[in-house]
Design brief:
Blueprint (H helix, E strand, L loop, with lengths): L4 H22 L4 H4 L3 H5 L9 H9 L4 H16 L4 H19 L4 H16 L6 H5 L4 H15 L8
Helix pairs in contact: 1-5, 1-7, 5-6, 6-7
Length: 161
Amino acid sequence: MVFDKFHIIAPVRKAVDDTRRQESRQERSARPVLKGTPRLWRKNPENFIGKEAAEIRELQGKPLATARAYQMRLVLQDISRLPDETSARQKMCEWCRWVKMVARKYPTLIFGKMLRAAAMIENHLEGIPAHWQSRTTKAFLEGGNSVFSAVKRAKPGASVW
């Protein structure tokens, strides 16, 4: 069984967004700081345009659970780019320990999705490194599935393309 990198990173990306939402709800001081920032936390640094890089640097300098979760996502993405399975597996284990250690500092509700993402990685740690052995992804199949889903949802006589 091979776990695609996308299926490892996607839950962590969603966990960052959930962390931002929960922190904004629970921490009054974080609410004004986090307002209007969802787009920043969803982007990779190389995709920032204009003032976004400066904005994210400023936000990361503040004691926000969201900033920590975002940093964790970026580190996991770097791990997924490592060339060999052994170091990737070791780094993923270290990443999961890091998430658990940091989560102790925040209320469970705020960092809960990040903890679940780390648990998911730990539970599938045997299948995740198989990506490095096979160098395959399911991107082609996922693309086909999206076309099939669009066809199923389309109204009779409507063009899917």
